[in-house]
Amino acid sequence: MAPSSVFLGVVVLLSAFPGPSVGGHPMPKLADRKLCADEECSHPISMAVALQDYVAPDCRFLTIRQGQVVYVFSKLKGRGRLFWGGGVQGDYYGDVAARLGYFPSSIVREDQTLKPGKTDVKTDKWDFYCQ
Question: Which of 68, 91, 104, 126 has the most CB atoms in a 10 Å sphere around its CB?
């Protein structure tokens, strides 16, 4: 087999399997605005405890287990007002990188306010982007 045929075969094979940098895509927005503790939504508003398990229906959402501590970073407004954005750690702190996503506000109990969520921020496509 000629080297150019092998090279062409490798190029065709690799093009059939896009790499991780190509796989992301925007998903429909859940809301146009959100409340945060700061303009960048980088500080948690509160700590909450999950009252029940929640299985994420798609990559925008966060799977949560009952009893898990959730850090709330944003609260959606308008049509998405039933959802909050936040993150959870693994069972052992530092064991797994924090997972971020949206979840129904009804499945958690806010236990501690860390910084009031009074900053109104416009959502953008990156708020609902899936990897």
Answer: 68
| H or E segment to which residue 107 belongs | none
Over residues 80-93, the pLDDT tens digits come to 999 999 999 765 55
> Can you tell me the distance from the alpha carbon of 64 to that of 105, in angstroms, rounded to the nearest whole number?
12
Spatial contact of 81 and 62, defined as CB atoms under 8 Å apart:
no
Say which amino acid occupies 73.
F
Query: Which residue type is seen at 83?
Result: F
Give the side-chain half-sphere CA count within 13 A for 121: 20
The percentage of the chain sitting over the pLDDT mark of 70, rounded to a whole number, equals 75
Q: How far apart are CA 106 and CA 29, in angstroms?
A: 20
Round to whole Å and give the CA distance between 68 and 66. 6
Cβ atoms of 106 and 26 within 8 Å: the answer is no
Bridge partners of 63?
Answer: none
Residue 56 identity: A
Both tokens of 88, joined, read 């959870």
How far is Cα 109 from Cα 23, in angstroms, rounded to an integer?
Answer: 35
